[in-house]
Amino acid sequence: MFEKVKEDIASVFHRDPAARNTFEVLTCYPGLHALLIHRFSHMLWTNGLKWLARFTSSLSRLFTGIEIHPGASIGRRFFIDHGLGVVIGETAEIGDDVTLYQGVTLGGTSWNKGKRHPTLADGVVVGAGAKVLGPFTVGENAKIGSNAVVTKTVPPGATVVGIPGRIIPPRDHREETDGQAAKRKAMADKIGFDAYGVTEDMPDPVARAMGSILDHLHAVDNRIGVMCEGLKELGVKNCDNALPELRDEDFEAVKGSVAEDHSRAR
Length: 266
Description:
By secondary structure, the chain is of the alpha/beta class. The protein has two domains: 2-168, UDP N-Acetylglucosamine Acyltransferase, domain 1, CATH 2.160.10.10; 178-265, no CATH class. It contains seven helices and 15 strands. Helix 5 (178-191) crosses helix 6. The longest helix is centred in the last third of the chain and has 29 residues, at 205-233. Residues 192-202 and 262-266 have low confidence and may be disordered.
């Protein structure tokens, strides 16, 4: 028991750079308080003292703003950051080294008795405001994005975002070739828009969509070039006309809007 408590305290230092010393962690971290009280109430629950366990967990909710049913099973080195508004249901199962942020709900979608809450495998991270609802498993080291609503099984290592939750393919599954990346960059430069300026290393659906648009524009540009060459051979001189110049200032508002949207998403 005391070994688990020491690990719980150490996990705060590992995952929160704001933690300065053990006394501060023990006295100022409601997530740790809620976890320690839960470990006691869970022991009461498993020993048949159901009412006392529920009463203890109710006191914990009153003082910490975190609701953990005493029937929930929680592994080692569990960490709740900030914590306010976290709700963990009775049949939830949480593995080792799991992290939850504020406003997370591990809830059910049925009033039937039995398993109705999710299982989080080892190393799962659930972002602020996310809702994980139903009796399914979130695989090892998976990540649930902030405010996502997840109602289906999540494979190990996956990242889930959005409402309803959708899995973002790992970067190596969609890595473009060097040639494709160079063409995309050239097209972005040509139209005066830096599609990767704020999202180059982020699995961002908007950035992926912009990348697809740039690929399409590049293909259209090449096709128009081939058509113009053919028309020239037929004596048509229209293709000699220069295209209208694209000015950088015309795209400043677009770039600023995308940067602002990305900043809000983070």
